[in-house]
Write a structure and sequence with these properties.
455 residues; mainly alpha; Serine Threonine Protein Phosphatase 5, Tetratricopeptide repeat; two-stranded antiparallel ribbon; two-stranded antiparallel sheet; 17 helices; globular; membrane; SusD_RagB_dom; signal; RagB/SusD family nutrient uptake outer membrane protein; cell outer membrane
């Protein structure tokens, strides 16, 4: 009975951190040394561990982008060794008992949240001549931003099923499961707390982290610039909360810049070296959903050329999609593949300037005044014209339709945005059902080990 309880505790949200750091890991110091005798090197190693944990399972072929892409009909995964990609993910119900499918995106994020708590608790014990107060503030700002991002991953997958947020206490005590809005509110408050720490570090004339964030954070590797990433994440969470004026405030403090490239942003980076991780979205079993090409808008006055099948379509299609040999599995088929992740080291976006422009347009559309609608029209048309499409006249009647189309193609297969967006606007019933028994799942269930531990 005791062994069963411990196993359930490790799998539940409240037990993950305590169990996870007990396992030897070259990317993390031992739990005992971090808690009792932390040093600069052990703390910075733990910070690197948070970066690695945050990247974990985002680009796997059964990871966050691929699974949410399946649910949002952005992609197929024709893995002939596992029929669940075609049946469980697209028909029937999601199984909460399997951590690779219906029970996914729970244990990893909660482990990282608890590990961040352990890191922050250790900071007070590090001697001042090893890490000064300003450096510790920078680490706290970083760690709380990571925690907020992990909670955002959990609530994006679980939606109204919610999840625990009070997971900083005794791991043997089960934290209550709270609502979606409470989780998102916690995301916002964590990001604000993180900003306070980052600002305090800069105010103390320390504008550097005592560790490197890696190439994916190029341009955002200092507290004064990392805070702009923090504000971008807050804007995304505020849009999910329908806090439209708050969204505009956060975007004003973010890295949104219509004079900069739309690709500006933060990314998960990958490598082929020993101990590193490759981008698993290179998997040849992953195909693009045919509706992406079928629904794409045509450029005005364009003449098709046989050798250039996407020449007359929205330029985002040609940049992200290519024709490939037909893949067929379980009465599904596609002749399109993604080109964004052709190399194992291809970066995966966390949040980009293009999304921020779209978030600003969404906030203005929902504010709904004439001036706000005009501002939204300018932002949406800026993206449309760049991609070879004609400007549109935005009205209160067509604004959401235009927004969702632009988000669909701009953020294609980057982070489950299509599924999340259609759910947010109660339009999941508009997603394609390719077979008679197909369904569109609304949310992931809470894992069975989590619910069993509460009985």
């Amino acid at each position: 009975m005791k062994k069963t309880f411990i196993a359930a505790l490790c799998a539940s949200s409240v037990g993950l951190g305590a169990c996870g750091l007990d396992i030897p890991d070259l990317n993390n110091p031992s739990l005992e040394s971090l808690q009792q005798t932390p040093t600069r090197s052990s703390v910075t190693a733990a910070a690197h561990g948070l970066l690695i944990g945050n990247r974990d399972n985002k680009s796997d072929h059964n990871g966050y982008v691929a699974h949410l892409g399946l649910l949002g009909r952005e992609s197929y995964t024709f893995d002939t060794t596992d029929p669940r990609f075609g049946n469980e993910m697209l028909t029937g119900t999601l199984n909460p008992g399997n951590a690779a499918f219906g029970g996914n995106f729970w244990t990893g994020p909660y482990a990282n949240i608890r590990n961040a708590n352990t890191l922050m608790e250790a900071l007070d014990k590090v001697p001042a001549d090893d890490l000064n107060d300003a450096q510790k503030e920078a680490i706290r700002g970083f760690a709380k931003t990571i925690q907020a991002h992990e909670f955002l991953t959990i609530v994006s997958a679980r939606d109204t099923n919610g999840g625990p947020i009070d997971v900083s206490g005794d791991p043997r005590t089960l934290a209550p499961i709270v609502s979606k809005d409470e989780m998102l509110t916690r995301v916002v408050s964590l990001l604000d707390e993180a900003k306070g720490h980052l600002d305090a570090s800069v105010a103390a004339e320390n504008d550097a982290f005592p560790f490197t964030l890696g190439s994916g954070y190029a341009g955002f590797e200092k507290p004064s610039t990392y805070v702009k990433f923090n504000r971008a994440l807050k804007a995304r969470a505020q849009v999910y909360l329908k806090d439209w004026t708050g969204t505009l405030t956060s975007l004003g403090e973010s890295f949104l810049d219509t004079n900069r490239e739309l690709t500006l942003g933060t990314y998960y980076s990958f490598g082929t070296g020993s101990g590193d991780t490759i981008n698993g979205l290179t998997n040849t079993a992953i195909y693009a959903h045919p509706s992406i090409v079928r629904d794409a808008e045509r450029k005005p006055d364009c003449v098709d050329v046989g050798a250039e099948p996407f020449r007359c379509l929205d330029a985002r299609v040609g940049r992200k999609i290519a024709q490939v040999a037909q893949g067929t599995y379980q009465n599904l088929s596609s002749t399109y593949g993604f080109t964004m992740y052709e190399q194992p080291t291809a970066p995966l976006p966390i949040i980009r300037n293009e999304e921020l422009v779209l978030l600003r347009a969404e906030a203005n559309i929902n504010i709904g005044t004439e001036a706000a609608l005009t501002a939204a029209e300018e932002d949406l048309n800026r993206i449309r014209v760049i991609n070879g499409l004609e400007p549109v006249l935005l009205t209160t009647e067509n604004a959401v339709d235009v927004l969702l189309k632009e988000r669909r193609y701009s953020l294609l297969f980057e982070g489950g945005h299509r599924w999340i967006d259609m759910r947010r606007y109660n339009r999941l019933n508009q997603l394609p059902k390719d077979r008679t028994n197909d369904v569109v799942h609304e949310r992931f269930p809470i894992p069975v080990l989590e619910t069993d531990a509460r009985q």
